[in-house]
Amino acid sequence: MVPDISTGSRTYGLLNYLYGPGRRDEHTDPHLVASWMPGLAPDPGRDPAATLKQLTDRLDLPVLALPKNRRPARHVWHCPVRTAPGDRQLTDAEWAEVARRIVHATGIAEAGDDKACRWIAVRHADDHIHLVATLVREDGRRPRRHEDGIRAQAECRKIEAEFGLQILNGGDRTAAQRPTSAERSKAERSGRPETPRETLRESVRHSLAGAASEEEFFHRLTEAGLRVEKRIAPSGDTLGYKVALPGDRNRDGEPIWFSGSKLAPDLSLPRIRQRLDAGRPADDAHITDRAEERAARPARARRQAATIAERAVSILDGDDDENSAAQLVGVGELLDAIAQTSPASTRKELAEAARAFERATRSHIHAERADNRAIRSAARGIIRAGNALGKGEDGGATAMLLSTTVLVAIAAVRWHSARGHAQQAAAAQRAAQHLRSAYRSASAVPMNAMREQGRRLPEPVRERYASTLEAVLPEQADHVRREPGWDALAATLDQAERAGHTPDVLLQQAIEWRELDTADSVTEVLVWRLRRIGKLPATTAAPRARTNGRTAQSLPHSSPSQVPETSVGPHRVDGRSRGPRR
């Protein structure tokens, strides 16, 4: 059950909409289900003699009784209350009880207070009602409605439990402001898929992702095509900013501006400065203009980001809440960076993942003093590297990174859930679902190629790698061998051995990197870890014929086209060396 409180200045205009046909003739049988005093509230929906003006005058009477200079400018209180999809249909009597409980909880009309505000509840659809009140009490005073939105939410949670409805997640006032009904209507009329507020919020987030300075942030806003206006102090310092979409104007032809704080709590200039100061990315490495180097940048940036993202998972599993909160902010920037530079095949899902995870980056746990420079630098590197192709080493490296971001999102779900952050946990869960879809799309080609290579290995070689798996992962070996990715894992172990690694040592490192319990596919997670730790290509070519047995196994033979730019050459891992435990 979702309440949505707003205020306005025209009682008649709101009632005309509620009793009218709706924008698409969706309003059916509009009528009152409850009011401050049924005998005094005419119902134009059921009484042919009643008019909207009569109802307006009755509601506004305490307001009009005040001298003009004491009347509030926005005296209309409006609160739609909607049940969740799938909930049963409530009766008029049940909606009347919901209405009375919400006006009581919010301070509009507490039970037993005969001097409270006048209010009505209008129903014109099966799944919701509209509460309308005028914000002057019968005694001429204003109602005590401090934090009425939070109190309405809390009362709705109680009503859901008592009425047997879906119990939704409670808010904590860290969410971005939702578009108003007027903004949504204007977007529909203009044929926009979303409101300007939502478009601007995403554009500002993208401009901030990996930005090294305030100047770069504002430069990116301008490059994104937004109108930008700074608020400058007499000293010349920038105090704030606001943005507008080109062509989005009000009825007077003026641009419709949104300050950063109106887009999201963490997009105000002071909060942006805190983020930049606490986690300023490292300086850019020298970037060469050679064509082969330019082509390798997106893959290299993604491989480096995958390692850093795995470290974020370890931090989220730890006890440092401030550091974890900072990592979540960095993960949000990383997802924004990936979404901006992703190939067309995964762009939509990644954009949805980034939008969903944006809610998971904000809670009441502050991270002003924590350091997230590494993950912000990873986001910056991805943006600086440019757009990735959906094939070849780019495609494989993208799948490698997305495999890790799924684990990060799951870790975020656990972290928020453990701290009672229901909205954020749900947002991280939605992001994980979109990331899984994007991963499946990105990994299809490279994983199929690796599976095919694994199937073509001689059976004695496959059995030897099965024995290696049994030795280092005895409890899960049978399960892993039944997964579809086992052939790809065998191919990766074979490629690692040919590159000079010891398969059992490298596999042990990949397993100890961190737990595998949250992985959808243990084999696929291990494949990408092995390729990252062993500096193997993220893609594979057609398998070469092996000569017999141990001789071939000891000869590294990676062609130049198979070795990624980050590779430092074939090497054997010291058996005593361990990757960091996750």
How would you describe this protein?
It is a single chain. The protein has helices at residues 11-19, 52-64, 92-105, 148-163, 181-190, 196-208, 214-223, 260-263, 269-278, 291-316, 321-341, 344-360, 373-385, 392-418, 422-455, 459-472, 477-482, 486-498, 503-512, 522-533, 549-553; strands at residues 2-3, 6-8, 31-35, 76-82, 117-123, 128-137, 227-232, 238-244, 258-259. It is an alpha+beta fold and 582 residues long. The chain folds into 3 domains: 2-163; 192-278, no CATH class; 288-582, no CATH class. The strands form 2 sheets. Strands 1, 2, 3, 4, 5 and 6 form a 6-stranded antiparallel β-sheet that branches. It has a 3-stranded antiparallel β-sheet with strand order 7-8-9. A hairpin with a 4-residue loop joins strand 5 (117-123) and strand 6. The two termini are 40 Å apart. This is Relaxase/Mobilisation nuclease domain-containing protein. Residues 539-552 have a biased composition (Low complexity). Residues 170-201, 279-299, 539-582 are annotated as: Disordered.
